[in-house]
Design a protein that fits this description.
The complex is a heterodimer. By secondary structure, chain A is mainly β. Chain A has no helices and 11 strands. In chain A, strands 2, 4, 5, 6, 9, 10 and 11 form a 7-stranded mixed sheet that branches. In chain A, strand 4 and strand 5 form a beta hairpin. Chain B is mainly beta. Chain B has no helices and 12 strands. Classes of the chains: A mainly beta, B mainly beta. Chains A and B meet through strand 4, strand 5, strand 9 and strand 10 of A and strand 5, strand 6, strand 10 and strand 11 of B.
């Protein structure tokens, strides 16, 4: 079956531009997570959705970062006025249920390079 | 707050040798423990997880890990590695509590390189 997909796979943005990153989770998965992975580091949590509700956005690094999941399926992570420190791989993951023991399935990520 | 420490950033081994990748965690509450593998330009794939019960858990591709509560460790092992095991390995934890508590906290990763 289809896994988690993300688009675009690669994005180059000039500093100051806005970008939008898309995540298509596995159909029927309730939970959706966004993580940021800097070069040579482990992924770091950004935000969490349960269906369309954004229950945790404590990991978003600044108010330039915004995420939505309006119909409880596809999610978009938007970064306004991109800065060089935003360069990273952005990973999306989905999970069937909400409790911690369920596997999170990861997409291939979007590599964002800000020049 | 929870944290994960992977004690080795790089582990080079020869093919067919055994390997152990070390992971220690810190948390004030009970946690679930995971090992993920990441191949170049790909997302993370779950190798195995510990939820409860037997402290020795077996995963895919011949990997296993042992949960040690007293030492707060969850080391990953494989008795005989293959070239194809070359990848980045991440240890991660999530706390029991609440829906948003299922967020994963990752270590910084261990690059396993298997040489012929």
């Amino acid at each position: 079956g289809a896994g988690v997909s993300q688009s675009p796979r690669y994005k180059v943005a000039k500093r100051g531009q806005d970008v939008a990153l898309r995540c298509d989770p596995i159909s029927g998965h309730v939970s959706l997570f966004w993580y940021q992975q800097a070069l040579g580091q482990g992924p770091e949590f950004l935000t969490y959705f349960q269906n369309e509700a954004q229950l945790d956005k404590s990991g978003l690094p600044s108010d330039r970062f915004f995420a939505e999941r309006p119909e409880g399926s596809v999610s978009t992570l938007k970064i306004q006025r991109t800065q060089q420190e935003d360069s990273a791989v952005y990973l999306c993951a989905s999970s069937l249920e909400t409790s911690g023991g369920y596997e999170q399935y990861f997409g291939p990520g979007t590599r964002l390079t800000v020049t | 707050a929870q944290s994960v420490t992977q004690l080795d950033s790089q582990v080079p081994v020869f093919e067919e040798a055994p390997v152990e990748l070390r992971c220690n965690y810190s948390s004030s509450v009970s946690v679930y423990l995971f090992w993920y593998v990441q191949y170049p330009n790909q997302g993370l794939q779950l190798l195995l997880k510990y939820l409860s019960g037997s402290t020795l858990v077996k995963g895919i591709n011949g990997f296993e890990a042992e949960f040690n509560k007293s030492q707060t460790s969850f080391h990953l092992r494989k008795p005989s590695v293959h070239i194809s095991d070359t990848a980045e390995y991440f240890c991660a934890v999530s706390e029991f509590k609440g829906a948003s508590g299922s967020r994963l906290t990752f270590g910084e990763g261990t690059q396993l390189t298997v040489n012929p």
